[in-house]
Design a protein that fits this description.
Blueprint: H1 2-18, H2 21-40, H3 49-66, H4 70-93, H5 96-121, H6 129-156, E1 161-163, H7 174-185, E2 193-195, H8 198-227
Antiparallel strand pairs: 1-2
Length: 233
């Protein structure tokens, strides 16, 4: 009886991993991470356990949701382990160089994850609600990608960004970079954080361009296909 139960549990796990439901799980953790954990636990709490635990959960959910191909999933696992190890090393040691390594590893992971998530979301098969949620997850992953890129530049050269009085509450400004990234991605632009370095300005322009084109072209096309699919769930 026990082996049979274990077999059923294993089959249910495989079904979840290979289905599109993992995309919804990834989006759930991303929303909590970006809109609740960062704003409420900013600053010094960034080196605490809650943010690090949620970061680890995003890496795990990203592994599940990224691809059904075994080789791709193994590669994502390796990148996730590197990103997770460097992140927790920074939590323990807390040095600027350790933080730069952690940010660079996060940029690498989120870059690869965004690519293969896009391949899965826009790949073969009928468009369903989970794929639309996955497309939204890609959008949030892009915001985190740029946030870590901005953080890496700041850690390398603090004069890369200029903060308006009262806009930088913590050092290093991890939560501020996340805020700045999503403000740029949505092209709101309050002007409280200004990029000064030419490379940072190029990244800002590229993110703003992606932030305009992705919802208007990619998400809109996916929603149109979903509405036109008579077999949608």
């Amino acid at each position: 009886m026990i082996p049979h139960k274990m077999s059923d549990a294993h089959r249910r796990w495989v079904w979840f991993v290979d289905s599109d439901k993992g995309l919804a799980a990834l989006l759930f953790f991303l929303v909590l991470y970006v809109f609740i954990i960062y704003p409420l636990l900013g600053g010094e709490a960034m080196t605490g356990g809650a943010v690090s635990i949620f970061f680890s959960l995003i890496l795990v959910a990203g592994i599940i949701a990224t691809s059904t191909h075994h080789a791709v999933r193994v590669g994502i696992v390796i990148l996730a382990v590197i990103a997770m190890a460097s992140h927790w090393l920074n939590v323990i040691l807390g040095g600027r160089v350790d933080h730069m390594v952690s940010a660079a590893a996060a940029v690498l992971f989120f870059s690869v994850q965004a690519w293969f998530l896009s391949v899965r979301v826009f790949g073969d098969g009928a468009v369903n609600l989970y794929r639309i949620l996955g497309a939204v997850a890609v959008y949030l992953v892009l915001g985190l990608l740029w946030a870590n890129a901005y953080l890496f530049l700041y850690l390398a050269t603090p004069t890369t960004f200029q903060f308006a009085p009262g806009s930088q509450a913590y050092e290093p400004p991890v939560s501020e970079m996340v805020y700045f990234s999503f403000i740029t991605l949505t092209t709101v632009g309050y002007g409280d954080i200004t990029p000064l370095h030419p490379f940072a300005r190029s990244l800002v322009m590229l993110e703003a361009l992606v932030g305009q084109l992705y919802p208007a072209i990619v998400l809109a096309r996916l929603v149109t296909q979903y509405q036109g699919n008579p077999r949608r769930a």
